[in-house]
Design brief:
mainly alpha; two-stranded antiparallel sheet; 10 helices; 66% helix
């Protein structure tokens, strides 16, 4: 019964995580959701500006801390085996919904693309960013990425196995296709408001700050294979990298 409960927990976490991403997809582009990044009105400028900034810093700080190896090691001594990743996904989903709920719109227009062809091209690029992120999770094992494989292994009393290091498919073109996808979806919008610009800037700064930290963790875990990978594949842009002979 305990194992079935843990698997149910993982499925709930997966559902919440995926639902939050689907909502965020509509939230950023102001389509198909009851509350989007620019919906509603806000009194004043500085209070909503600093409130949104606080929300973003708190959101990214939580994600950064929970992704660190030292936190994972400590966390796994507290929570049931096989649920560490599911808990991360659940908290990620809940914090996305909290961010959306508490977000205060700043609707001053930074740019607005009214040409139908240009608008459609930008939206296509936006959807391409989400597609890139989705495909990247399957490149590295989608079900392990979202915690389902770990819960299934625990249900079957199997030893948890690391997916290991792989530089195939999208990861042969860019070391961080998921981060590249996030950069695309943050900036590819036909209507950039002040609030959207704030989120895009903070998200971009976070990605550029946290990526070297993540790579240092990967070097510590994988060693020379990852160092060689760094020398042959660019961090974000899928442009061939010349290797010194």
């Amino acid at each position: 019964m305990k194992k079935i409960t843990l698997l149910s927990y993982a499925l709930i976490a997966y559902t919440v995580g995926m639902a939050s991403l689907l909502y965020l997809m509509g939230f950023l582009i102001n389509l198909y959701v009851p509350k989007s990044i620019d919906s509603g009105t806000t009194e004043g400028l500085w209070l909503p500006l600093f409130s949104n900034m606080g929300l973003l810093v708190a959101y990214f700080a939580i994600h950064s801390v929970m992704a660190r190896p030292w936190f994972k090691a400590a966390w796994q001594r507290i929570i049931p085996a096989g649920t560490e990743r599911s808990t991360y996904i659940l908290i990620s989903g809940v914090t996305v919904f909290l961010l959306v709920l508490l977000w205060q719109p700043l609707t001053t227009t930074i740019w607005l693309t009214e040409n139908p062809i240009a608008r459609n091209l930008i939206i296509t690029l936006y959807l391409g960013g989400w597609t890139l992120m989705t495909l990247a999770t399957f490149n590295i094992n989608h079900f392990a990425f979202f915690g389902l494989q770990q819960a299934w292994a625990s249900l079957r009393s199997q030893r948890q196995q690391s997916p290991g290091f792989s530089a195939r498919y999208l990861y042969a073109l860019t070391r961080h296709p998921i981060s590249l996808g996030w950069l695309i979806v943050m900036w590819a919008t036909p209507a950039m408001s002040l609030g959207h610009l704030l989120m895009a800037i903070v998200a971009t700064l976070y990605i550029f700050i946290i990526t070297p930290v993540e790579e240092a963790d990967l070097v510590a875990e994988i060693g020379d294979d990852y160092r060689h990978y760094q020398q042959t594949v660019r961090r974000f842009l899928p442009i061939p990298k010349k290797v010194a002979q």
